[in-house]
């Protein structure tokens, strides 16, 4: 069976029969716009932007039972998912590419899950070749050069970033050159070596390819550029030196640097010559040249004492005798490598002069100063991550470093060639606000995270205490460190009417990660909270078990903002002392009661007349709505005394009587009414008549 399934899988047709890619100007299809690159077919398309947006249409070989999928990739962002169109005849998607000029292996991978156990999921990869048209023109305004004199020209190009540059000089040509790119501008540096009319031939290369031969051949080579120059002899003889880089420091200023110079023929030994940066008299003193002795290769051994900085691209250096220029030469005089400022940039942040870093963090460090390109910097016990986007110049260099999680020093020393530069990075523990799920609360049940208690919590038993516990093991994770947590507790207690009973604020409750954290040894602090936090230990006037019915305990937990550079978290906990039943003594005035006495006589088993205003004194049970705070239900049940016709003082009133009753009453739902008219229903025993009776009727209730 396995062999048969393998043969069936091998005989399956390709997943796609056609694929097209449409940009804002053109449409490119796999059948018509393919080209071989390293003997593999690629679908090429022209782009104009680094983040080019394109519409993708995919035509499967046959309508399959399972959907076609486009695999995710870091090379592009899928704006619209792959959607079947026209009953599955083709699929459509919209995507945006990322950094097309720098992407070397761009492809689209499609996958179709298997709808049968005998077939494996099928995939097909379509390799893409983004191409762009690049032009390069060289039209120098001046074609006159001098031997030994470096000159700089500018190129014009529609896409200068796509031109491959090299900072290395060519060697052994009539005109040596190098090509560099600076702030989006292409610059050509030329240095002639021979007199006469000399041709400079450039064979530029591109970073991204383009197509030739009717879009059938891939090439990186732009058309050659040929330019003739007239090279003239210098007015002064150029003397080369064996050192092109001289450091300006205390030793080179006082003791001098040993230098080998071409023999100027007119040099006098044991004599000091002045080196200036201009041919005319009165130029700034750059260095002094002292000739020591001749060498066998027609060169002169000298001492060079330098006093000022100089760059070869600024001008020539003139060797003078009595203010008269005799020769020219050129070399760089750079200040000693020195760091004047250090700034850091954390992930997702901006550059800051605060050089505090955290263990386990990856960040960029920028060194600013002089002659930094000549430095050999490294960071103590820290890994430097290579980065193509790093800035490097004499004035500034940028390094991307990763601080180990287990780094055990307070500072990271920056070295140059093994010597401390005096600049350091302070290592501080992470101090970031963690979500408050590590804080637990107990008020009669098992501890629960405070983040799960949202809204008022109705608790129908006595709250003996409110205890806060801290799960210090949930703060630091293996790859996510937060450090110490500084918390502030604001506590308020209120009575049923909302009046304030007591308020307390506890600042800077410090919760430290436990021993499972990789940085546990560095969190040791006497301020760290040990054990639980009891609310009754903080309240002074009334403890939680002394609070009246429907009192509130409002606790706000928040991060102490002064301890953090980013907003912290806040959690509010509101506990309400809920009650189900209320017992009280109620005095009311039933009026117009309809009574019915129960006796053995048939004649008296009739309804009596409506009574006048009566007086009822009842011990009643009231019932609270379990879904609302301090809201009673509209009915009550009680027992007590009813004085029928109590306010009828006529001596002939025979209906006045005192009864022992059990009554149920229904009150209006309005809670703000001062005068109410409840309904009464119940029964009891008349003391004077000695009969049992039922009663029903309204009453008058007055709320004071």
Topology:
Blueprint: H1 2-10, E1 16-22, E2 27-29, E3 34-37, E4 40-46, E5 53-60, E6 69-70, E7 76-85, E8 90-97, E9 107-112, E10 122-131, E11 136-137, E12 144-146, E13 151-154, E14 156-157, E15 175-182, E16 185-192, E17 196-202, E18 205-212, E19 217-221, E20 225-232, E21 237-238, E22 245-248, H2 250-254, E23 257-262, E24 272-276, E25 285-294, E26 299-306, E27 317-321, E28 324-329, E29 332-335, E30 338-346, E31 356-357, E32 362-370, E33 377-379, E34 383-385, E35 396-402, E36 411-416, E37 419-427, E38 439-442, E39 448-449, E40 456-459, E41 467-470, E42 485-494, E43 500-511, E44 533-534, E45 552-559, E46 570-577, E47 581-590, E48 594-598, E49 615-624, E50 632-644, E51 657-666, E52 675-676, E53 679-686, E54 692-702
Parallel strand pairs: 4-10, 12-20, 21-28, 22-29, 31-37, 40-46
Antiparallel strand pairs: 1-2, 1-5, 3-4, 5-8, 6-9, 7-8, 9-10, 11-14, 13-16, 15-16, 17-20, 18-19, 23-26, 24-25, 24-27, 25-26, 27-28, 30-32, 32-35, 33-36, 34-35, 36-37, 38-39, 38-41, 41-44, 42-43, 42-45, 45-46, 47-49, 47-54, 48-54, 49-50, 50-51, 51-53, 52-54, 53-54
Short description:
The protein is mainly beta and 704 residues long. It is built from two helices and 54 strands.
Written account of the structure:
The chain has 704 residues and is mainly beta. A hairpin with an 8-residue loop joins strand 24 (272-276) and strand 25 (285-294). The chain has two helices and 54 strands. It starts with a helix and ends with a strand. It has six domains: 2-131, Immunoglobulin-like (Sandwich); 136-232, Sandwich (Immunoglobulin-like), CATH 2.60.40; 237-335, Immunoglobulin-like (Sandwich); 340-427, Immunoglobulin-like (Sandwich), CATH 2.60.40.10; 436-577, Immunoglobulin-like (Sandwich), CATH 2.60.40; 581-702, no CATH class.
């Amino acid at each position: 069976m396995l062999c048969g399934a393998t043969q069936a899988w091998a005989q399956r047709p390709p997943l796609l029969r056609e694929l097209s890619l449409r940009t804002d100007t053109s449409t490119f299809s796999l059948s018509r716009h393919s080209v071989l690159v390293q003997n593999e077919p690629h679908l090429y398309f022209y782009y104009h932007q680094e983040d080019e947006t394109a519409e993708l249409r995919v035509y499967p070989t046959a309508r399959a039972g399972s959907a076609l999928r486009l695999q995710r990739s870091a090379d592009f962002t899928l704006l619209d998912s792959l959607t079947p169109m026209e009953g599955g005849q083709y699929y459509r998607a919209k995507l945006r590419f990322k950094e097309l000029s720098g992407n070397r292996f761009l492809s689209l991978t499609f996958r179709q899950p298997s709808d049968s156990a005998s077939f494996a999921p099928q995939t097909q990869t379509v390799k893409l070749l983004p191409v762009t048209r690049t032009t390069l023109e060289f039209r120098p305004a001046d074609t006159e050069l001098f031997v030994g004199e470096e000159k700089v020209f500018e190129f014009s190009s529609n896409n200068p970033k796509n031109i491959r540059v090299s900072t290395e000089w060519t060697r052994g040509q009539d005109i040596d050159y190098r090509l560099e790119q600076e702030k989006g501008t292409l610059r050509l540096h030329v240095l002639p070596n021979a007199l006469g009319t000399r041709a400079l031939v450039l064979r530029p290369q591109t970073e991204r390819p383009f197509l030739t031969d009717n879009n059938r051949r891939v090439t990186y080579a732009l058309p050659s550029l040929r330019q003739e120059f007239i090279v003239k002899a210098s007015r002064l003889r150029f003397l080369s030196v064996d050192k092109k880089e001289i450091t300006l420091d205390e030793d080179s200023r006082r003791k001098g640097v040993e230098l080998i110079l071409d023999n100027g023929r007119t040099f006098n030994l044991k004599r000091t010559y002045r080196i200036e940066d201009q041919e005319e008299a009165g130029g700034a003193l750059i260095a002094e040249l002292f000739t020591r002795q001749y060498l066998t290769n027609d060169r002169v051994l000298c001492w060079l004492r330098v006093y000022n900085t100089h760059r070869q691209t600024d001008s020539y250096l003139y060797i003078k005798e009595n203010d008269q220029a005799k020769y020219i030469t050129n070399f760089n005089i750079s200040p000693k490598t020195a760091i004047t400022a250090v700034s850091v940039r954390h992930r997702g942040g901006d550059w800051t002069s605060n050089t505090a870093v955290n263990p386990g963090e990856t960040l960029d460090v920028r060194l600013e100063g002089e002659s930094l390109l000549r430095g050999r910097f490294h960071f103590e016990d820290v890994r430097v991550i290579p980065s193509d986007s790093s800035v490097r110049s004499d004035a500034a260099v940028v390094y991307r470093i990763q601080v180990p999680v287990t780094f055990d020093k307070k500072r990271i020393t920056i070295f140059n060639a093994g010597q401390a530069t005096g600049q350091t990075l302070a290592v501080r523990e992470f101090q970031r606000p963690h979500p408050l799920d590590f804080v637990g609360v107990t008020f009669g049940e098992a501890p629960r995270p405070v983040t799960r208690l949202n809204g008022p919590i109705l608790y129908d038993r006595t709250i003996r205490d409110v205890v806060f516990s801290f799960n210090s093991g949930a703060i630091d994770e293996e790859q996510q460190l937060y450090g110490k947590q500084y918390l502030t507790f604001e506590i308020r207690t209120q009575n049923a009417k909302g009046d304030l009973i007591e308020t307390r604020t506890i600042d800077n409750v410090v919760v430290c990660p436990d021993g499972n954290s990789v940085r546990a040894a560095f969190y040791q602090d006497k301020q760290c909270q040990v054990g639980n936090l009891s609310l009754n230990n903080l309240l002074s006037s009334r403890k939680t078990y002394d609070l009246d019915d429907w009192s509130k305990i409002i606790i706000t937990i928040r991060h102490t903002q002064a301890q953090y550079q980013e907003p912290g978290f806040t959690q509010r906990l509101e506990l309400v002392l809920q009650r189900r039943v209320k017992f009280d003594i109620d005095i009311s005035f039933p009026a117009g009661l309809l009574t019915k006495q129960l006796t053995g006589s048939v004649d008296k088993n009739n309804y009596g007349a409506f009574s006048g205003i009566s007086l009822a004194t009842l011990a009643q049970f009231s019932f609270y709505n379990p879904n609302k705070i301090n809201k009673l239900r509209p009915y009550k049940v009680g027992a007590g005394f009813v004085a029928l016709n109590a306010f009828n003082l006529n001596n002939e009133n025979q209906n006045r009587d005192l009864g022992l009753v059990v009554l149920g009453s229904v009150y209006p739902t309005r809670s703000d009414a001062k005068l109410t008219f409840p309904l009464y229903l119940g029964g009891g025993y008349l003391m004077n008549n000695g009969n049992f009776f039922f009663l029903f009727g309204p009453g008058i209730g007055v709320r004071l």
